Amino acid sequence: MTDIRTDTYENEAGFGDFFALLKPRVMSLVVFTALVGLLVAPGGINPVVGFASVLFIAIGAGASGALNMWYDADIDAVMKRTAGRPVPSGRVAPGEAFAIGITLSVMAVVMLALAANFVAAGLLAFTIFFYAVVYTMWLKRWTPQNIVIGGASGAFPPMIGWAAVTGGISLESVLMFALIFLWTPPHFWALALFMKEDYSKAGVPMLTVTHGRQTTRRHMFAYTLALVAVSLALALSSIGGPFTLAVSVLLNLWFLKAAFIVLRRDEASARSDGYKAEKAMFRVSLYYLFLMFGALLVETTLKSLGLGGW
User: Fold this and answer.
1) How confident is the model at residue 8 (pLDDT cuts 50, 70, 90)?
2) Which whole-number Å values give the CA distances from 175 to 179, 181, 184, in the listed order?
3) Side-chain half-sphere of 84: how many Cα atoms within 13 Å?
4) Is 211 exposed, middle or buried, given 0-12, 13-18 or 19+ CB atoms closer than 10 A?
5) Residue 89 three-state SS
6) 60 vs 41, 82, 193, CA distance in Å?
7) pLDDT, tens digit (0-9, with 9 covering 90-100), for 69-79
8) Cα 179–183–189 angle (5° rounding)?
9) 166-202, pLDDT tens digit by residue?
10) pLDDT greater than 60 at residue 9
11) Rg, C-alpha atoms of the chain
């Protein structure tokens, strides 16, 4: 854990350093899934309110990222993938990251409550708490199931977007949550398979470290099978339709093939080719989530034209 302190750094942080605290790559996924949740929700929303809602959800996600970087600076410093982040690299003081995270968290929740409703704001507050406290401060350093349980924090944005419109939670929003929740383990474990040494050096009990790569491959395939079921259920729900179902079938076949190839590999062959299949599955997982939520968006557009839906 990184103590809150007011260190003085030789190099003054620039705007890009503070923006990097917000984990913009993660934020982009949050914005997209929240936007889809908002647009596919029944009833519609004023465009200005909708824009403000997505903006505050994005700010809340960024606040979570800043708090994560503040607390995990010690871990980030010893991992190649994260050593260049603003706090471990010394460009931003831990106290600054903490202050930014707390300030943006409060602002995002309060403003979402004012712009949309208290249900959406409550879900956003819980998401920030879950990621910054439950996952970052507890699960990540304690259990190999860290990414499984902690994945819930990344699964809430479409539910928040949905709640911003409807003021509630429904089967459809729960299915969108479940899609991201089940997608997260195979996505991150694929990364962990070829980044195991990083997690081992940092003392993070990732499944690859505690149970080995072969066990991780079996878990990845099991979660991929569960993901298939949820994605098909989502395609068959009220926000799905023939187009979403067709996209879901194709994506699931693609993802299952990638997961099966990884499942069948032994460690010697994986190491000999530089974990080529594992890296391929990681890339496929990125396309999978983006295209599944994109299909829901296209389906909604088709419905508005009288061409989609069940």
Assistant:
1) very low
2) 6, 10, 14
3) 4
4) middle
5) coil
6) 21, 21, 30
7) 999 999 999 88
8) 165
9) 999 999 999 999 999 999 999 999 998 988 777 888 8
10) no
11) 20
Q: How far is 271 from 293, CA to CA, in rounded Å?
A: 34
pLDDT band at residue 14 under the 50/70/90 scheme: confident
CA distance 88 to 195: 19
AA identity, residue 307: L
Under CATH, what is the fold of the domain 14-168?
Tetracycline Repressor; domain 2 (1.10.357)
The one-letter amino acid at 24: P
Q: What is d(CA 132, CA 117) in angstroms, rounded to the nearest whole number?
A: 23
Q: Which of 22, 35, 27, 7 is nearest to 94 (CA)?
A: 7
Which DSSP state fits 136?
Answer: I
Determine the Cα–Cα distance for residues 159 and 100; give it in Å rounded to an integer.
25
Give this prediction's pTM: 0.91
Instruction: Dig out the tokens for 186 from the structure.
Output: 């195979």
Residues in the chain: 310
* Cβ 180 vs Cβ 151: under 8 Å: yes
* Residue 214 falls in which region: left (phi positive, over 0), alpha (psi -120 to 50) or beta: alpha
